[in-house]
Design goal:
The structure holds two protein chains of two kinds.
Chain A lengths: L1 H7 L2 H6 L3 H37 L5 H13 L5 H21 L6 H17 L7 H15 L6 H7 L8 H5 L2 H7 L10 H15 L14 H10 L10 H17 L1 H4 L2 H4 L2 H12 L1 H12 L16 H23 L8 H17 L26 H18 L8 H7 L1
Helix pairs in contact in A: 3-4, 5-6, 5-7, 6-7, 11-13, 13-16, 16-17, 16-18
Chain B lengths: L1 H8 L21 E3 L7 E2 H8 L4 E2 L8 E2 L5 E2 L5 H16 L10 H19 L4 H14 L1 H60 L5 H52 L2 H4 L36 H8 L1 H5 L4 H13 L6 H24 L1
Antiparallel strand pairs in B: 1-2, 1-5, 3-4
The chains are: A mainly alpha, B mainly alpha.
Protein name (chain B): RNA polymerase II transcription factor B subunit 3
GO molecular function, one term (chain B): zinc ion binding
Main location (chain B): nucleus
Chain lengths: 418, 363
């Protein structure tokens, strides 16, 4: 199938498609590395604090080891599941944020931003970078990649909050985000595909449908007859085109929410996603549409009109596809918006509290627009000012040295050195 | 030659079966046959009967229609042999597959046997019509390969002929050289002797013995020098000939190679190069071909119709068909891509790279 080959060339398939197992293992790995770092960072912060106090007064070398052990126990990092829920919360927030603008940002832009967030947090942990800061940046980046122009000032002013968000805060983590995205900005959404499918269904409903290239024996009239004969959908509709319209609306809603918040984009292809959503919205309609494309209802194989060689590969495809679509629609159906579920909300509050404690103190994003990961460490105490300054100078020198590199300094070594 | 001998031998008592004139009366009489019926008749009868166009055979009981241009002199004394040779030639002409065209020796042998069977059938008049039909069908089907093989055969025959001529020429030259050499030797011997005699005649009797010895020595020296010279020349020629045969050998084999590539490598099929296909810039990809849908010129849609009729939207060159093709492509792009299995397969090879990247980004 030529369309499939076209999709296989996309970066979404090449870099951002995973199996369930690989997705899980990747998240676990990210989480493990991040937790390790957070623990180390917190320990260092504690040590720094203790050293300053000891410098002031009584040195307590003996209690240091005990304190460290206690810290390790105290620091309770997020689990991968908690991280996922936490990121999902911010994905929903992104959706809301997009709606606060006048006019609201297009669905496509918001969906792209959400996918950026999800992709970014596959290899980065929310414990390292707070999703709140990344979220705005992702949305702004999405307006640019989806060709929906908006000035940075306008964008920053539109972000609600107690204190206004500065432009620097929005743009700050942009490079970091792009790096996390592996510089692939193309997100294949199911929305446009849905429009195409609905368009074709409408054409069939009006007797203008074209059969697929592999099933040319059907005439437009036959297709129309079959469409009119399908079993009634979940909602009573006055006419078939009304029914298609309703299915369209429902599917679009599912795609806007469930498809974005779940891992559907990682696990399935856009056309599988929209067809699964259509299956949820109006099962007979979706099955009819698949029949026109891949031939023959699956359940009654014995009355296949012509068991020719041509149909066999399509038949295999159909069987496989039905399984995948069922899986995908189950995934979409399992989605429940956070706001409608108090249990999840309470859980989320717990996670947020926990997250507050285990946020990596060394990775605060400076509101400064630097080409690479920013290094300005927070100033916990003013006592060790001289020591801190010396460290900073050293880092600065290092940065100057590495900034001669055209792509900026190497992030990894810098961060670990700190 | 055989026929000439035969004709010569049976000079007198031969009688033309048509006009009954005998060689006795007409010593220049030649007998001709026609491969249609192989009835023998004299040249004058052929002229007389068939000059005005095709006519039936004058031999009683034979109603074959004969043409003058097919008449020819008899090669073999026995008409049966003559006929068989003719049939054989014709069949071999059509069934001229070569051994290197077959996959195995066994297949070639089968083919040979089949050919012999066909010849035998034709010769002994068994299933003639059927066999002829087979032959004709084969000939029309395999016109090209038959012609190619004929060309090959001709080429081989001509190279063989050329080689034979060359060898003969060389032998002739060698004989000539040898004769020249012997002549020269004899002349020299003669001259030496004459010189010796004249010196003996002019010189005193005292040194006659010495002169005789010298003359003998000179002759010996000359002959030995000549012999060594000859040896050298012979060696040179041998070396030359060796290299020549080597060269001709290589050229021969190369000729054969160009004719049928399989002879040396043991390939059994002559591969005619496939006709060049028309240039395909997309390597088999047809830009407008789609597998899941057929694109129509227009689709019914309320809000798109507005755009179609809106001159403002159209002015910039916007074409709704672009939208149609894009939405429909996206509707089906990747429908048959099963991420689960394809990614698993891909990850096996790319695992290291992907994880490396992930770790790098995370760190």
């Amino acid at each position: 199938m030529i369309e499939d080959d076209i999709y296989r060339t996309s970066s979404q398939f090449r870099l951002w498609s995973y199996t369930e197992a690989s997705l899980r293992s990747l998240r676990e790995k990210t989480n493990a590395i991040a937790s390790e770092r957070v623990r180390a960072a917190l320990r260092r912060a504690k040590e720094a604090h203790q050293s300053t106090t000891s410098a002031n007064g009584t040195p307590q070398t003996g209690s240091d080891g005990e304190g460290k052990k206690m810290d390790d126990k105290e620091i309770d990092c997020l689990t991968p599941e908690e991280e996922l829920a936490f990121v999902r919360f911010y994905c929903e927030k992104t959706l809301e944020l997009g709606e606060t603008y006048k006019p609201a940002l297009p669905t496509m832009v918001r969906a792209t931003a959400i996918q950026y967030l999800k992709r970014f947090y596959l290899t980065n942990s929310p414990m390292t970078y707070h999703p709140k800061s990344i979220m705005a940046c992702a949305l702004f980046l999405a307006t640019k990649t989806d060709n929906y122009y908006m000035s940075l000032r306008q964008f920053a002013e539109g972000i609600p909050g107690k204190k206004p968000t500065t432009q620097e805060e929005v743009i700050g983590p942009e490079f970091l985000l792009m790096q996390g995205l592996r510089f692939t900005f193309d997100v294949r959404h199911p929305f446009r595909g849905l429009e195409g499918g609905i368009m074709e269904l409408q054409a069939i409903a009006e007797g203008q449908g074209q059969p697929g290239p592999h099933l040319t024996h059907q005439t437009p009239q036959q297709l129309q007859q079959k469409l009119l004969a399908i079993s009634p959908g979940p909602v009573r509709a006055s006419s078939i085109s009304d029914r298609i319209g309703r299915a369209h609306g429902t599917t679009r809603e599912i795609l806007k929410t469930a498809a974005q918040m779940t891992d559907a984009y990682f696990l399935y292809t856009p056309s599988q996603i929209w067809l699964s959503a259509l299956l949820l919205a109006d099962r007979p309609l979706a099955e009819f549409y698949l029949d026109t494309k891949l031939g023959g209802p699956l359940t009654s194989t014995d009355i296949k009109p012509d068991p020719s060689d041509l149909q066999n590969p399509l038949y295999d495809l159909r069987t496989k596809l039905l399984r995948v679509l069922t899986d995908c629609s189950a995934l979409l159906q399992a989605y429940q918006p956070l706001s409608s579920d108090p249990g999840q909300m309470a859980d989320l509050q717990r996670i947020a509290k926990k997250h507050h404690h285990c946020l990596n103190p060394e990775k605060k994003l400076a509101p400064k627009r630097t080409p690479a990961g920013t290094e300005a460490s927070p100033a916990p105490a003013s006592e060790s000012e001289t020591e801190r300054l010396a460290k900073k100078r050293k880092l600065e020198a290092e940065k100057a040295r590495s900034s001669q590199d055209i792509f900026g300094p190497e992030l990894v070594t810098e961060r670990t050195k700190q | 030659m055989a026929s000439r001998n035969g004709v010569d031998r049976r000079d007198d008592d031969e009688v033309c079966p048509v006009c009954k004139s005998s060689r006795y009366l007409n010593p220049n009489m030649r007998f001709l046959i026609n491969p249609e019926c192989y009835h023998k008749m004299c040249e004058s009868c052929v002229d007389r009967i068939f000059s005005s166009g095709p006519s039936s055979c004058p031999v009683a009981g034979c109603r074959k229609t004969l043409r003058k241009n097919r008449f020819r002199a008899q090669t073999f004394e026995d008409i049966g042999v003559e006929r068989e040779v003719d049939i054989r030639r014709r069949v071999m002409h059509i069934l001229n597959r070569r051994e290197d065209e077959f996959d195995s020796k066994r297949n070639y042998d089968d083919f040979l046997e089949q050919r012999e069977e066909i010849i035998a059938n034709l010769v002994s008049r068994i299933d003639v019509a059927k066999t002829e039909a087979q032959l004709q069908a084969y000939a029309s089907e395999n016109m090209d390969s038959i012609r190619a093989n004929q060309a090959l055969e001709e080429e081989e025959a001509s190279t063989f002929q050329a080689r034979v001529t060359k060898e003969q020429e060389e032998a002739r030259q060698r004989r000539q050289a040898e004769r020249d050499r012997l002549d020269a030797e004899r002349r020299e011997m003669q001259a030496g002797r004459e010189d010796f005699l004249s010196r003996l005649a002019s010189g005193s009797s005292a040194d006659a013995g010495k002169i005789a010895r010298e003359g003998h020595k000179v002759l010996l020296k000359k002959s030995s020098a000549r012999r060594s010279e000859e040896d050298r020349i012979r060696q040179k020629q041998a070396a030359l000939r060796g290299s020549e045969t080597k060269r001709t050998g290589t050229t021969l084999s190369s000729v054969e190679k160009s004719g049928d590539s399989g002879l040396i490598k043991g390939l059994r099929k002559i591969k005619t190069p496939e006709p060049e296909k028309p240039y395909d810039p997309f390597m088999g990809y047809v830009p407008e071909k789609r597998d899941y849908y057929t694109l129509k010129q227009s689709y019914p849609s309320g809000y798109l119709d507005r755009i179609r009729n809106d001159p403002q939207a159209q002015a910039g060159g916007y074409d709704l068909r672009e939208y149609y093709s894009r939405t429909l492509l996206e509707a089906f792009a990747g429908l048959g891509v099963f991420v689960e299995e394809e990614v698993t397969r891909r990850d096996v090879s790319q695992a290291a790279a992907t994880e490396g990247a992930a770790v790098a980004v995370e760190e």
